Amino acid sequence: MFKGRAATVLKEQVRFDNSSAGPIDWDTYPVLRFSEVPEIAIELIASDSDLPLGVGEATAGPTAAAIGNAVSRALGIRVRDLPLTRERIMAKLLVQ
Fold this sequence. Notes:
Distance between the termini: 35 Å
Strand order of the largest sheet: 1-2
Number of strands: 2
Largest sheet: 2 strands, antiparallel
Order of helices and strands: HEEHH
CATH superfamily: Aldehyde oxidase/xanthine dehydrogenase, molybdopterin binding domain
CATH topology: Aldehyde Oxidoreductase, domain 4
Helix content: 25-40%
């Protein structure tokens, strides 16, 4: 589940040009590859008191926040525009 959420934070965005919004195919769509995902340990905890709501749906907010906080802690800057691309991080670093 982390893979899809991390892709949203690190790579996915809609780019517009004069003719269309792109990308228009899976070859140019910026998704996180399995080779880019770190190993993750997952534990499911059974509970009789909680309603079943799914497993990965709740990770969207916390994953984005965790990655954003890790960047902020490591570099001392806060990047507030997603995806957190190298270009956006470098631009923020150069402004300081």
